[in-house]
Specification:
The complex is a heterodimer. By secondary structure, chain A is α/β, with parallel strands linked by helices. Chain A is built from 10 helices and 12 strands. Chain A is globular, with a radius of gyration of 21 Å. Chain B is α/β, with parallel strands linked by helices. Chain B has a single domain, classed as Rossmann fold, CATH 3.40.50.300. Helices cover 31% and strands 23% of the residues of chain B. In chain B, strand 4 and strand 5 form a beta hairpin. Classes of the chains: A alpha/beta, B alpha/beta. At the A-B interface, helix 6, helix 7, helix 8, helix 9 and helix 10 of A face helix 6, helix 7 and helix 9 of B.
């Protein structure tokens, strides 16, 4: 299933928000790759820069105050950062599409769900209204909703069903890349299980690559091939799922695992990370994690850690793993 | 036998809506021993928060009994209720909505003390507020800060300090960590654990997050559409769930591990509407083991021994539906 060719390559991407209170370095020198059919999990807490990354790929960062400061986003061999708005419009919703967290706010309440799916199809494909409606009904069936309900409005569906409609819209044009921003966070666990199952099946069927943004390491273990852990705008650890769960390296990643109650074991006490997320306009010097890090050294407050490949395919941004000679 | 602090018998709360009678809580029975934590889990709309509020009489029950320290608090008059409220407190889900934005932190924490006229001396009260802030780990320099200056974790600490102000015996924790990031969530869970040991508190811990509930609870009650479907100690709940809904619910939790692959039971459809629910088992429409009797007769919560209670006609004898 996996192809050696990368569908998306993000190189040294930096996105800043320039505000009156100072510059927020939402994404800093990010490097990621996604192969065809692969799923990348983007994990982090509030304010880590996950959603900004997603908006950056779609070139939808609100400007002002947001701005892509540097770097490349190479999608199917072309740099998206250099593209014009009209070129991008042909890509968005067609080759790259997005699923948002809250299905209630991402659907139009005064438009039938069928029309909302048909809208994308008509925009990107050369079809007439009847064909588009037919395609909409087909997509509804694919996500497990009877096609006959295409004339219903969003409020007539439950939360889980609405998220299915959103997925139908996102997949209507057979995108090669799907960005899902916390697609199941607003849903109950049994419904979450249904939706994740559906996404997994559809991904296989269409061989779509996916970026799954989430804060839930359980969801990542279930659907992702690779994971990038973000902290204060930096990808601090990046590797495949197996290595991340069996031998996490960065102290923050280890802290995250210590913070989640594990239903499979019987620990009596959690080992939380001390302190709080830093103020985004005032990120600590050196390694942004050093004030909270249990293994911080003197040098951590002075020098920014470089992205280090600790073993093939396992990247960590931490001075503990850097060769300090030279 | 342990001492029971709270016992709820056949508790009901119905709401009149335009579409009919909404059975939010429909005949719930449970008890909580002194110093223990009872976890109440379920999905949106199952009635868990309503249960928490009815137990404190923040909402008036439609029917049933709530026995707190041997007395039925539903029979209390206003005066008695006021006294009782000192013993029973609540921490709310949203630390952004549950603190008055126009009050400073010390005013928020002091409010229960002022309302109940605990201190006649202002300095004594300030001392108590300081002590409470210290207990929940809020720096003294924040005494005059306002809620908007704080992050979610600190706000939730203030909510906890306020709940502790009157030295209660019992606290309803209504999704206290759902709005927080995992690293902060772990800090708050540990804090609540410490406070429980220190002050001998009893918790009713309401949450939709099963991993969190398992972590904090001694016993767990699972709710579905206004009814408790299974109640047992946390260990046997997770090792040997008996109700088909509990089984599906537990199997649906994404586990942050890759070495354990679990069998998943996918439920069909959604939770039905709690308005005018039909006779019979509430789970009937989604249950893979349903039989004819399940549609006709509502299963009672039965004692299966070892303090395990299950509301299912076929407990221990589940066979796939023959339709």
């Amino acid at each position: 299933m996996k192809d050696n060719k990368n569908l998306l390559e993000i190189k040294d991407l930096s996105i800043h928000y320039i505000t009156d209170d100072g510059t927020v370095r939402a994404v800093e020198e990010m490097n990621l790759e996604i192969g065809v059919g692969e799923t990348l999990g983007l994990v982090g807490e509030t304010g880590a820069g996950k959603t900004t990354t997603a908006l950056g790929i779609m070139n939808l960062v609100p400007n002002p105050p947001g701005k892509i400061i540097g770097g490349e986003i190479v999608f199917e061999g072309e740099d998206l950062v250099k593209k014009s708005q009209s070129e991008l419009r042909k890509i968005r919703g067609n080759k790259i599409s997005m699923i948002f967290q809250d299905p209630m706010t991402s659907l139009n309440p005064v438009m039938t769900v069928g029309d909302q799916i048909a809208e994308v199809v008509k925009l990107h494909q050369n079809v007439n209204a009847a064909e588009a409606t037919e395609r909409a009904m087909e997509m509804l069936e694919k996500v497990g909703i009877p096609g006959t309900r295409h004339k219903d409005f969003p409020h007539q569906f439950s939360g889980g069903m609405r998220q299915r409609v959103v997925i139908a819209i996102a997949l209507a044009c057979n995108p090669t890349l799907l960005i899902a921003d916390e697609p199941t966070t607003a849903l109950d666990v049994t419904i979450q299980a249904q939706v994740l199952d559906l996404m997994r099946n559809l991904k296989h069927e269409f061989n779509t690559s996916m970026i799954m943004i989430t804060h839930d390491l359980g969801v990542v273990a279930e659907v992702c091939d690779k994971v990038a852990i973000m902290y204060a705008g930096n990808v601090i650890e990046y590797t495949d799922v197996k290595r991340l769960y069996t031998s996490p390296k960065h102290p923050y990643t280890i802290g995250l695992f210590g913070s989640i109650p594990d239903i499979e074991s019987d620990e009596s006490r959690l080992k939380p990370i001390k302190g709080l997320m830093p103020d985004p306009t005032n990120i600590p010097s050196g390694c942004p994690f050093h004030p909270r890090c249990p293994k911080a050294m003197d040098i951590c407050s002075q020098r920014k850690p470089k992205n280090t490949e600790v073993e093939p395919g396992h990247f960590v941004k931490c001075l503990l793993f850097e060769n300090t000679e030279k | 036998m342990q001492e029971r602090l709270l016992e709820v018998r056949n508790l009901k709360k119905h709401f009149n809506t335009k579409k009919g009678l909404l059975h939010a809580v429909d005949g719930v029975n449970f008890f909580i021993n002194k110093g223990e934590t009872l976890g109440l889990v379920g999905e949106s709309g199952c009635g868990k928060s309503t249960t928490g509020r009815v137990v404190l009489r923040l909402l008036e029950a439609t029917d049933g009994e709530i026995i707190f320290e041997g007395k039925d608090i539903l029979q209390f008059n206003k005066q008695q209720l006021r006294e009782m409220r000192k013993e029973m407190q609540i921490v709310f889900q949203d630390p952004f909505a549950s603190l008055n934005p126009r009050m400073s932190l010390s005013e928020i924490i002091a409010e229960p003390l002022v309302v109940n006229k605990v201190f006649s001396d202002k300095l004594e009260m300030q001392k108590r507020v300081k002590e409470l802030m210290d207990t929940v780990g809020i720096a003294e320099r924040l005494t005059n800060a306002y809620p908007h200056e704080l992050d979610g974790g600190r706000r939730q600490r203030i909510g906890i300090a306020r709940a502790l102000a009157l030295n209660p015996k019992f606290i309803v924790q209504d999704e206290p960590v759902s709005a927080l990031d995992v690293s902060i969530q772990a800090q708050i869970l540990n804090l609540m654990d410490d406070l429980q040991d220190e002050f001998g508190l009893t918790y009713l811990f309401i949450s939709h997050d099963l991993s969190v509930v398992k972590h904090v609870s001694d016993r767990i009650a699972v709710m579905y559409l206004g009814k408790i479907v299974e109640l047992s100690d946390y260990n046997s709940m997770f090792k040997n769930p008996l109700h088909p809904y509990t089984q599906a619910l537990l199997s649906a939790i994404p586990v942050p591990r890759i070495d354990i692959k679990r069998e998943r039971i996918l439920l069909e459809g959604d939770v039905p509407s709690p308005i005018n629910p039909p006779e019979g088992c509430r789970f009937y429409g989604r249950c893979q083991y349903r039989q004819e009797i399940c549609r006709q007769k509502t299963p009672e919560l039965r004692d299966m021994g070892n303090e395990k209670y299950v509301a299912c006609h076929f407990t221990g004898d589940l066979r796939p539906a023959s339709e």
